[in-house]
């Protein structure tokens, strides 16, 4: 009965989405009927509430392990720890799509409830676009991925959950990314709304900016967490694999980063109008393409857990309708958007345009690399594209981007002098050059990309802190702090990536109990291997003692796990974080002579990568709070932002 | 002109959507056709990987008799699982040569002692140079090479029992 209530709620929410779209369209046409526009807000709010209730019902079904519901039976098990029952409700195709649409409906309700900055007709057009997007996803759920479908007869117990996904990270990773994707859909709705009502200007940009900022923070967190998850859970010792699904989350982030900067230009200086609209469309397209790539199984990947061409076709159809319509609207309407304010070639705006350009190029590189295998397959070839393409192609542009990032905040809006800029950049440039020389002298063997990466990181770290120079720190606005912290985060992450790539040590050894192997500065001794038992798995656990020089030894316990239901083998890496890096150990198979295969890595400063990711997101949060705070106090836009 | 330019994004998107659609409806293809098929193996000379077997050069693959060239490594787990199949093939009279990738002699000796030794010659490719020139990207991989040194078939991954007829047929066709 409960599942049927959930389905009913979903149908009702879909009905309200229809109503919301129709009301919006009518209100825009019949301007003499203001009551139509007035009705759209409560409808949007009600739709958000209904979708949330449907999602809560699904979570409840998972928590009570109702095995008569097909989704629960396929993806859960009554013996599973409660946290994984809970997160299992969205760790599958149907549940994750329901979560998607729930967040979408909630943000629609949020706009209706809170948004007061944009013109009334723009708000109505935005809510109409939101209703249409939600409608597509309701249709998708109801017609091809019903999460509440029953099983008759009901099985006595469920089929478990992919043990790779049985991890606290899973409870957070997909919802975080979805919050980001959906935030992009709100930015998209705003862009469509502003195009429809020809209202592209600073007010619209200010309404859109918190959504873009928020979405960007979640995407940043999602990517950072996803990278760490792959790092410790897959046991391959790497933090980025250019896997199609990783790329699918990186591409919206790149577009969102570009959008974040161009929307600031629009809000502050009323320039880059058409470009900002275009980016909003691109950013949402990338989110949809990301969803499509993951859900269609068109590219094989560890993440694509629901491979179904019919569903892929459905998402592709939605993509075609939304993006096709938006781009058509863009082509028809953007000519009517007046040209915004102008600026000089050396100015903050110009630096932000450069930033957008570099980000777009990287986005293009990643998109081509991700999709080329599909193109090649269409031409009858099977290929896969990996780091040898992505690292130099995306990495070299990223280095230019980092340099531009260091210079941008040091420039004035509208017009600046090249000489003055060079004076302000002198210290960061000098620091970059010193690091460049030092690294060359001390480690001439490392790759060019790592070498330049380390130098650029030093330059960018100094450059990102430079805007604080000579300021009263207590009176510096919060959003300026946000920018500084985010930019510093980029430098920190870059330093971690370059150091790990250049100085990482890897050993694959066979050792018997009592023997030791060296990796980097550490000597790792295998003490013993013994079986251990967990809640729904058994494992072989190695106890290792690692010691650097004569310092105090510490213990590492990697496991080779065997999940009982369904039977699956996984490897749990043991990672020990030291102040200057991580020691990473994986237990392999036993050899015939009784020795064990061990994989050991010493990864200097690798933690900086995720620390940097965290700083980038923190900067976004500070910026968001700073903007909201300033608006609450009614100070309007600060031109020195 | 500017008007036309505004439609460019839509056209790019249409092209892109076409590619996705094509990829979606194209049937899944399980076989991988190698670029090497029909080409002669590149010239190479590899030292012996272990004392008991001679090394391998491209000349050894032009003896007039079709052979199976197996690329393996002692540190590779799927290589161990395919070992019994290779032994079976050798029993049926197939001449098997091998290239050991980034391996040490003592490890190869231990591997062969544990999993059996189907190989006539084993070359040692410590830097993967020959492997790359053969168009092989991983271990294990196997090539069917005819008597004149022309690659007739490339098999990616471990050879399983169900692959044996296909490989025997390719060897027969190469005669």
Task: Write structural notes for this entry.
The complex is a heterodimer of chains A (641) and B (175). Among the domains of chain A are: 1-161, Up-down Bundle (Four Helix Bundle (Hemerythrin (Met), subunit A)); 425-503 and 609-641, no CATH class; 505-604. Chain A is 63% helix and 12% strand. Chain A has helices at residues 2-29, 34-63, 70-75, 82-88, 93-114, 120-144, 168-196, 202-233, 244-269, 273-296, 309-333, 348-378, 387-407, 418-442, 448-465, 478-503, 607-632; strands at residues 505-511, 516-519, 522-533, 537-548, 554-556, 559-564, 567-572, 574-578, 581-590, 596-604. The longest helix of chain A is centred in the middle third of the chain and has 32 residues, at 202-233. The N and C termini of chain A lie far apart (55 Å). Chain B is an alpha/beta fold and 175 residues long. Helices cover 36% and strands 18% of the residues of chain B. The A-B interface holds A 278, 281, 285, 292, 296, 298, 309, 312-313, 316, 319-320, 323-324, 327-328, 330-331, 334-335, 371, 374-375, 377-378, 380-382, 508, 589, 591-593 and B 2-3, 6-7, 9-10, 13-14, 16-17, 19-26, 29, 32-33, 75, 77, 110, 114.
CATH architecture of chain B: 3-Layer(aba) Sandwich
Radius of gyration of chain B: 21 Å
Instruction: Domain count of chain B, please report it.
Output: 1
By helix and strand content of chain A, what is the structural category? alpha+beta
In the CATH hierarchy, what is the class of one domain in chain A? Mainly Alpha
Mean pLDDT of chain A: 86
How much beta of chain B, percentage-wise? 15-25%
Number of distinct helices of chain A: 17
Query: Could you name the ranges of chain A where pLDDT drops below 50 across 5 or more consecutive residues?
Result: 301-306, 636-641
Total helical segments of chain B:
6
Which percent range fits the helix content of chain A? Answer: 55-70%
Distance between the termini of chain A: 55 Å
Extended strand count of chain A: 10
By CATH's scheme, which homologous superfamily of chain B applies?
Glutaredoxin
Give the neighbour order of strands across the main sheet of chain B: 5-4-3-6-7
Helix-residue proportion of chain B: 25-40%
The most extensive contact between chains is: A-B, 33 and 25 residues
Please provide the count of β strands of chain B.
Answer: 7
């Amino acid at each position: 009965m409960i599942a049927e209530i959930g389905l009913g709620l979903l149908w009702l929410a879909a009905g309200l989405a229809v109503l919301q779209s129709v009301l919006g369209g009518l209100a825009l046409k019949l301007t003499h009927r203001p009551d139509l526009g007035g009705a759209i807000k409560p409808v949007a709010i009600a739709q958000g509430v209904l979708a949330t209730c449907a999602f809560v019902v699904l979570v409840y079904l998972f928590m009570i392990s109702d095995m008569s519901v097909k989704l629960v039976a396929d993806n859960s098990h009554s013996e599973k720890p409660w946290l994984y029952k809970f997160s299992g409700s969205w760790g599958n195709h149907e549940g994750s799509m329901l979560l998607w649409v729930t967040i979408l409906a909630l943000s629609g309700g949020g706009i209706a409830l809170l948004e007061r900055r944009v013109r009334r007709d723009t708000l109505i057009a935005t809510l109409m676009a939101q209703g249409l997007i939600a409608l597509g996803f309701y249709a998708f759920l109801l017609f091809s991925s019903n999460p509440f479908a029953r099983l008759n007869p009901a099985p006595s117990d469920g089929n478990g959950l992919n043990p790779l996904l049985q991890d606290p990270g899973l409870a957070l990773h997909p919802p975080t990314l979805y919050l980001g994707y959906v935030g992009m859909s709100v930015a998209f709705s705003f862009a469509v709304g502003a195009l429809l009502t020809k209202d592209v200007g600073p007010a619209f940009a200010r309404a859109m900016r918190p959504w873009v900022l928020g979405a960007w923070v979640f995407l940043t967190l999602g990517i950072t967490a996803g990278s760490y998850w792959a790092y410790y859970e897959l046991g391959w010792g790497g933090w980025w694999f250019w896997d199609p699904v990783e790329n699918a989350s990186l591409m919206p982030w790149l577009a969102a980063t570009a959008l974040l900067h161009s929307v600031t230009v629009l809000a502050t200086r009323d320039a880059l109008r058409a470009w900002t609209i275009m980016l909003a469309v691109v950013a949402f397209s990338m989110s949809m393409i990301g969803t499509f790539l993951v859900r269609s199984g068109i590219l094989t990947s560890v993440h694509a857990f629901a491979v179904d061409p019919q569903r892929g076709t459905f998402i592709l159809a939605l993509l075609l309708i939304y993006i096709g319509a938006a781009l058509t609207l863009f082509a028809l309407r953007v000519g009517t958007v007046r040209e915004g304010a102008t600026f000089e070639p050396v100015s903050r705006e110009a630096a932000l345009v450069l930033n957008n350009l570099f980000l777009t190029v990287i986005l293009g590189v990643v998109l081509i690399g991700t999709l080329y295998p599909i193109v090649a397959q269409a031409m009858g070839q099977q290929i896969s594209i990996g780091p040898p393409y992505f690292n130099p192609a995306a990495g070299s542009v990223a280095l230019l981007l980092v340099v531009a990032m260091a210079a941008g905040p040091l420039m004035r809006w509208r017009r600046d002098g090249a000489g003055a800029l060079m004076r302000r950049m002198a210290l960061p440039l000098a620091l970059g050059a010193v690091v460049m020389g030092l690294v060359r002298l001390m480690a001439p063997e490392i790759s060019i990309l790592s070498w330049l990466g380390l130098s650029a990181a030093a330059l960018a770290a100094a450059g990102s802190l430079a805007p604080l120079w000579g300021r009263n720190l207590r009176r510096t606005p919060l959003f300026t702090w946000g920018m500084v912290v985010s930019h510093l985060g980029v430098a920190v992450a870059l330093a971690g990536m370059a150091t790990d790539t250049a100085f990482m040590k890897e050993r694959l050894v066979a050792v018997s109990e009592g023997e030791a192997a060296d990796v980097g500065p550490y000597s790792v001794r295998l003490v013993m291997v013994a079986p251990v038992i967990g809640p729904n798995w058994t494992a072989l656990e190695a106890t290792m003692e690692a010691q650097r020089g004569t310092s105090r030894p510490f213990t590492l316990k990697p496991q080779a796990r065997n999940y009982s239901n369904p039977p699956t083998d996984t490897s749990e890496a043991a990672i020990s974080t030291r102040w200057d890096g991580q020691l990473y150990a994986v237990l392999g198979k036993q050899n015939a002579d009784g020795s064990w295969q061990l994989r050991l890595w010493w990864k200097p400063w690798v933690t900086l990568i995720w620390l940097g990711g965290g700083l980038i997101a923190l900067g976004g949060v500070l910026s968001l709070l700073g903007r909201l705070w300033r608006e609450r106090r009614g100070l309007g836009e600060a031109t020195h932002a | 002109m500017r008007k036309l330019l505004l439609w460019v994004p839509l056209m790019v998107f249409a092209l892109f959507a076409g590619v996705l659609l094509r990829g979606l409806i194209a049937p899944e293809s399980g076989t991988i056709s190698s670029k090497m098929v029909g080409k002669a193996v590149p010239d190479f000379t590899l030292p012996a990987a272990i004392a008991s077997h001679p090394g391998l050069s491209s000349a050894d693959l032009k003896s007039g008799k079709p052979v199976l060239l197996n690329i393996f490594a002692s540190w590779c787990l799927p290589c161990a699982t395919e070992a019994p199949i290779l032994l079976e093939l050798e029993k049926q009279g197939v001449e098997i040569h091998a290239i050991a990738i980034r391996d040490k002699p003592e490890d190869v000796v231990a591997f062969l002692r544990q999993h059996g030794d189907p190989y006539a010659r084993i070359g040692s490719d410590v830097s993967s140079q020959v492997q790359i020139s053969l168009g092989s990207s991983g271990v294990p991989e196997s090539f069917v090479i005819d008597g004149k040194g022309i690659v007739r078939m490339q098999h990616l991954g471990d050879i399983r029992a169900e692959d044996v007829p296909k490989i025997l047929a390719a060897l027969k066709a190469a005669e």
